[in-house]
């Protein structure tokens, strides 16, 4: 359907999936990723500081397109949107979640890992879906298999994506984006090693261009 709100525009084809333990890490992380060419970030609602972190990035790093990840409930959708998330992502989807997202008017990437889940998300109007957990679901073989019946669906494989396999994923015609947590290692966040994060982002940016 054309009535669903579009994702904000961003250049990067690699979406860092981040779990933050401290909201104060959010702005320097966003700046470090931008310095490495990545202008999109998924901040997961897995920690108590996630909403504050989303709000800080939305407020202070406007050129970073900040999405809220791990949206599991209607409440998560509302809280993420109130915090300033420009879009949402989920590991899966449910009727209640899709209703909440539609009511909120939040651009959204539902998670799928079976043909039936692709069909349900497609019926709800979605054409970009997160394949999760991507390598467990079969990785490239699964994406190739899904391409035949679902020629109008694009995927963001996430879960098991790394520097070693992202190039192969991004060459697959029905892959629009890839997601992964390796771009923001917990140890680098703890140590405030923003240069390491910029270096990881730059590596990913270069590989995704090639
Ligand atoms: C997650 O659930 O944390 C994301 O899918 C990232 O998975 P990864 O750690 O395998 O990149």
Automatic annotation (TrEMBL):
EC numbers: 4.1.2.14
InterPro entries in the record: Aldlse_KDPG_KHG, Aldolase_TIM, KDPG/KHG_AS_1, KDPG/KHG_AS_2
UniProt enzyme class: lyase
Pathway(s) the chain acts in: Carbohydrate acid metabolism; 2-dehydro-3-deoxy-D-gluconate degradation; D-glyceraldehyde 3-phosphate and pyruvate from 2-dehydro-3-deoxy-D-gluconate: step 2/2
Annotated family: Belongs to the KHG/KDPG aldolase family.
Subunit composition and interactions: Homotrimer.
The name this protein goes by in its record: 2-dehydro-3-deoxy-phosphogluconate aldolase
Native source species: Ideonella oryzae
């Amino acid at each position: 359907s054309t009535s669903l709100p579009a994702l904000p525009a961003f250049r990067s084809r690699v979406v860092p999936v981040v779990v933050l333990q401290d909201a104060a890490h959010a702005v320097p992380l966003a700046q470090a990723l931008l310095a490495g060419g990545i202008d999109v970030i998924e901040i997961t609602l897995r920690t108590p500081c996630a909403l504050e972190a989303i709000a800080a990035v939305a407020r202070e790093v406007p050129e970073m397109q900040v999405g809220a990840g791990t949206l599991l409930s209607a409440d998560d959708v509302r809280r993420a949107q109130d915090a300033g998330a420009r879009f949402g992502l989920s590991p899966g989807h449910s009727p209640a979640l899709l209703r909440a997202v539609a009511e909120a008017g939040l651009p959204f990437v539902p998670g799928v890992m079976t043909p039936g889940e692709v069909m349900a998300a497609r019926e709800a109007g979605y054409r970009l879906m997160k394949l999760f957990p991507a390598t467990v679901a079969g990785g490239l073989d699964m994406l190739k298999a899904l391409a035949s019946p679902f020629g109008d669906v694009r995927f963001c494989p996430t879960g098991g994506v790394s520097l070693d396999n992202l190039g192969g994923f991004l060459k697959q015609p029905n892959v629009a984006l890839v997601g992964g947590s390796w771009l923001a290692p917990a140890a680098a966040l703890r140590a405030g090693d923003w240069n390491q994060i910029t270096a990881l982002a730059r590596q990913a940016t270069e590989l995704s261009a090639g």
